[in-house]
Structure formats: C-alpha cells, structure tokens
Write the structure tokens for this entry.
Amino acid sequence: MRKGALRLLAGILALHGVAALPAARLQAQDPIQLGIRYQPGVRPGIVVAAGAGLDSVRKIIERDLQFSDRFELAYWPDGAGPLTGPLNLQLYRETLGLTWAAELRPAVGGVELLLNHLPSGAARIRGVRGVETSGIGPGRMSIHVLSDEITLAASGGKGIAASRILFQYSDAIWSIDSDGANLARVSRGTGIAMSPAWAPDGSRVAYTELRDFSGPVVIQNLTSGARQTVPTTTGSGFGGTPVFSPRGDEMIFARGSEQGTDLFRVDVARMCCVLALTASGRLADNMNPTYSPDGRRVAFMSTRPGRPQIYVMDADGANQQALDPSAGPGTGGSFAPDWSPDGERIAFHRDIAGGRQVLVYEFGTGRATAVTGTGRNEDPSWAPDSRHLVFRSSRGGGSQLWVLDSETGAMRQLTNLNGPARMPSWSPSFSGTTP
C-alpha cells in the first residue's frame, strides 16, 4: 500500500479510536424489559391491544412506539389474554386519560389495524396490512412499517422503526434493526470492511475494503449480493469514508496520496468520471463527506487550518468555508459530520477536555450544542426523523452503539457485542420488507 493510502488509513483508524481489529464473537442481545404502567404526561397516551396469535406483533409495536419517544405507553398486560370483542374505548379515555388505542386483529393476508382517536371517537386508520406475524427475521420489518404508520397518524411525526443501522464490528460490516434486534452480517468480501454508507433507497451499501495493497470502495447490492468496485483516479489506492448522493447516482469518497487526502466525486451510475473536489496542499486531510438533503452542498472534515474542523462546500467543490463555530478553552478538533435529513442541522464529534462529545450545529442559530457529556462519544449518524442519533460511546463500559433522542436527551443502548462497534450509519426509512 502506498504512503498516501497508509496516511489516510491511519487517519481514519485514529479518528475512530482503532488500535487493532481483533477477531471477536457475537454476544446475544440483552432482553428489553417493557413497562407495565401508564403515567399521563405531556406526550399523548396510547395502548396497543391484539387478538389471538398477535402477541409478538403487539410487543414489537409497543417497543417501537416507546423508542419513538413521542408517546406515553399503556401496556396491555400479558395475563389479560388476547383481544376478543370491541375495546372499551370509554374506559381508556376517561379512566386512564389516553388519546389513542390501536387494535390489532388477525386477517387474511396479515393484520387488521384500527387506530382510534379516543377524544373524538373517530378511527384514523382502518384496514388490513400485509404483516409477517412471527416477528422473526427480515419479515419483522413489515411490523416496523406498521409502527411507523401509527406513529405518523397519531403524532404527525416520522417514525424510525422501519430502519436499520450499519456499523463495523471486527473485520466486517453488520446491520441491526433500529430496536436492537435482527443482527446480521452484510459485507461478503475477504478484506477488512469499514466506513459503511447506505444508498438513499436502501437497496445498496458502500464500504471500504482493506486488502493487501489497496483499499477500494465497494458497492454491494443487498438483494443479489453483487459487488462493484468504485473507480478512482488510478487503478489502485485507498478510498475511505464514502457517501452516496441523495439521488444515488454519484458518490464522494476520500483518497490519500503523497500530497494529502482529498475528496473525489464519481459517477456510480456509469462507474466513471472521477473528479477531484478538494486540493488542500501537502499533508492536509479532507474526509468524512456528507451531502445536504437537496444534494447541493457537502460538509466534510478538513485539517487545512491546522486542526480538524468542519467545512462546507458546493457539491462541485466551489465555495469551501469553515462551518463549526469557535471552540472554547480545552477543546480540540471536530470530526465526522452528518447532515440531518431535514437539512437543518449537522451532527459531529469534537475533542473536549481530553474526551470526545457529540455536538449538533443548527443553521438557524449558527451555534453548536453538545448533546452528550458522559464517556467518549463519536461518529454520530442521524435517524430518518432528524431527531434521533446513533453514535459510538464508551458509557456503560466497552465501546457500543447508543441512540439519543436529541429533543428529550433520552438514551438507550443499541448493541451489546463482545467487542467494539464502530462507524454507525442509519438507513433511510423502508416502505416495506427489505433484503
């Protein structure tokens, strides 16, 4: 591997705190304990009741609604048995003060859903949905889709249940559902895979694959498993931190050379036409690109000012300028930006007082605010709702993925593996069962 490629590889590994990539084995996920009481609060209250054979569906939806951080859950007791006759809507409205009641009943082809708005007595959703009722394996995504439909109808907000998260574990790329279940290996190559990224339609993923003398960017189709190597300016080299454009026809990645590390754009629809976007001079590094949702701008990390900072530029490389505000005493470089799907914020991590914390820059205010403060936290990635973030954290011991609700500060641990999880990338929302 050439000197420039080694510099880029070393830089990416250092950014993510990687000293080695030892082989490790998976450890089963800890079971999640569901609550049993409802306490009225500011958020609307909701209960989910299910007919015979739909306990697994009900529990997954309850958990999804809980993790949306948009509701107070009243849990249907396991000992109460399945739903048979009509729900006593008056009881849930007047006695418990609930706003919503979701009824799930067996139906030909899936599940019949009735979402009742208790104050008005109106049904906001009524119909049969194609759902894999076992709640096991890839088919459980159809249940998550149902959860997001309920979330949107009952809160007006986008759900995050029907999504997955890519990350690096050991020498491969893995995916996990947003609720921490359905862990699966994704990368199929023979090298060490890192820096995963989703295509905007969720059908493909990209990642860097380290081999003996190169580190190309690979695009893998999740349905067929077919792989393509992304072209670079030469026949070899190391391509890091890839990101798809919002339309999925282009990609930006970082490539190292003796002159430094620069960003390049490539047409991945035709697999051609590599164009340099940065040229910062010798020993400067530019990496971790992230597109704005409209595809017109790109944020990235650059060391050109002497320490890593977040920069923004037009998608063609023009108008490059620093984004992140002046850091106070005890702060260091800023790394790994990720543009929110609504276009209003950029999350990144920064060295602060000997540690690393996740910050969110808001374009409306021009200010960056720390959203973590415990442990070492890095590599944030936005959920499809532009509200939740997944990131790598040392809290709780080890180095695992955690999910943060940026509005309430609520935290939950996503992974519990026998080894560090790194470089998470949150998928777009899926409209149905995915590969």
Remarks:
- The two ends are 34 Å apart (CA to CA).
- The chain has two domains: 3-24+170-426, 45-155.
- Residues 45-155 form a domain with the Rossmann fold fold (CATH 3.40.50.800).
- Residues 1 and 411 are 41 Å apart (CA to CA).
